[in-house]
Amino acid sequence: MKTLEVDLGHRSYPIHIGSQLLSNSDLLKPHIQGKSVVIVTNETVAPLYLGTLKTQLSNYRCDSIVLKDGEAHKNLETLNTIYTRLLEQRYDRKTTLIALGGGVVGDIAGYAAASYQRGIPFIQIPTTLLAQVDSSVGGKTAVNHPLGKNMIGAFYQPQCVLADTEVLKTLPPRELAAGLAEVIKYGLLGDREFLLWVKDNMDALKDCDNATLTTAIERSCQMKAEIVAADEREGGQRALLNLGHTFGHAIETEMGYGEWLHGEAVGAGMVMAAEMSRACGWIKQEDLDLAKEVIAAADLPTQPPSKMTPDTFLQHMARDKKVIDGSLRLVLLKALGHAVVTADFDQAALMATLERE
């Protein structure tokens, strides 16, 4: 097992990474403050892992809330079902919410924890690669709105994160590929050598080799933990973690949440960010080619949906959370392994990227 620390002073917490962690109650108990635990999961994950987790929590009053699966259900209506159960069963501020599932479960359970009685403790047990390397770490919690992804939420840190590599073996290949998008993102934005390592180890990652996955998750979480510790509420540096996301969120919103998986949209979005960086003259053609090669090798799309026009992209991008005073900021590449957040870019390069010439 590997353990990393997200350094946030008195709100610091560990990330445990390894195999068979779901069966180790000793990792959970130090982070459960009261006598009550409520597990939030979904209808796909529950039959696989809910029983195992409940067995580890047999000394607590333990309840579970099973949500419908998918990004389409990450909304205020689903959030309200969590509040209703907590209120009906009279759970108090000492109750610990445990998110057992992928990024949707983690985001919505985290926001429920942040807002129920103005904040109760919660623990992240991510069951997808995407959640293990990205969404479970850093305290971003949210639900979607028809007009924009993750527009209603809060920064709220978990008590701990348990990333069990064994559970990834039950992921469908499409979900695994979606998680690899976020792994690739860390290489592109801040560590070229890691990007090359991912390229060289792609087959082992897709085969869910435990040791290879542990290395990939550890490096991804290490990079995210460092960025979050320096900029918890996304005042500057943390926005780098949105590489590919401004384009990707536009795709998700336009296509309908869940039609494209988040990682698939980010994969295409990262290619678009790299293409725009090339159009700005910031990276070389061989850099763009390498980025495309690694993304394609992960079985991710390298182009947006054909129905997306420049106008539809711009309409959705205008609502992006990185827009400040009406000015769109994008995460672009100065080199592979060196991303920047900037509003100082060539508009012609943006339009050329959106027009897909």
Structure description:
This protein has 357 residues and is α/β, with parallel strands linked by helices. It contains 13 helices and eleven strands. The chain has helices spanning 46-56, 76-88, 103-115, 129-135, 173-190, 192-200, 202-206, 210-230, 245-255, 262-279, 285-297, 310-317, 347-355; strands at 2-6, 13-18, 36-42, 61-67, 96-101, 122-126, 140-145, 148-155, 161-164, 330-335, 338-342. The strands form four sheets. It has a four-stranded parallel sheet with strand order 4-3-5-6, with helices on both faces. Strands 1-2-9 form a three-stranded mixed sheet, covered by helices on one side. Strands 7-8 form a two-stranded antiparallel sheet. Strand 7 and strand 8 (148-155) form a beta hairpin. The longest helix has 21 residues, at 210-230. The mean pLDDT is 96.
Structural features:
single chain, about 350 residues, alpha/beta, Rossmann fold, Dehydroquinate synthase-like, alpha domain, three-stranded mixed beta sheet
